[in-house]
Amino acid sequence: MKTNQFNICPSCMHVTTCVLTKQKSLVWACSEYDELIVKPMVSNKMDINQNIDYQQIHY
Q1: Largest Cα–Cα distance in the chain?
Q2: Is 56 part of a structural domain of the chain?
Q3: Which domain holds residue 11?
Q4: Within a domain: residue 54?
Q5: What pLDDT score was predicted for residue 26?
Q6: What does each C-alpha distance from 42 to 22, 39, 45, 46, 53 come to in angstroms?
Q7: Quick check: 50 pLDDT over 60?
């Protein structure tokens, strides 16, 4: 018998704290499932030459 490869636990935000089941490799439905959404990291570093008005700089 071939096992079902579909499993929702790895994409759930509660996977590390879930106590509903220990068999997390076999879960295909769950009433507490909330999808984990991964947002890409955005750099807050500003280009050193960005937003500099060189005419306002007095040497």
Answers
A1: 79
A2: no
A3: 1-36
A4: no
A5: 85
A6: 35, 9, 9, 11, 25
A7: no
Does position 46 have pLDDT exceeding 90, yes or no? no
Domains: count for the chain: 1
Whether the pLDDT of residue 35 is over 70: the answer is yes
DSSP output for 15-54:
TTT--S-S-TTS-S--TT--B--PPPP---PPPTTTT--G
Mean pLDDT of the chain: 76
CA 54 to chain centre: 40
Q: What's the pLDDT score for residue 36? A: 87
Please give the span between the terminal C-alpha atoms of the chain, in angstroms, as a whole number: 79
Q: Which of 7, 9, 18, 5 is nearest to 36 (CA)?
A: 9
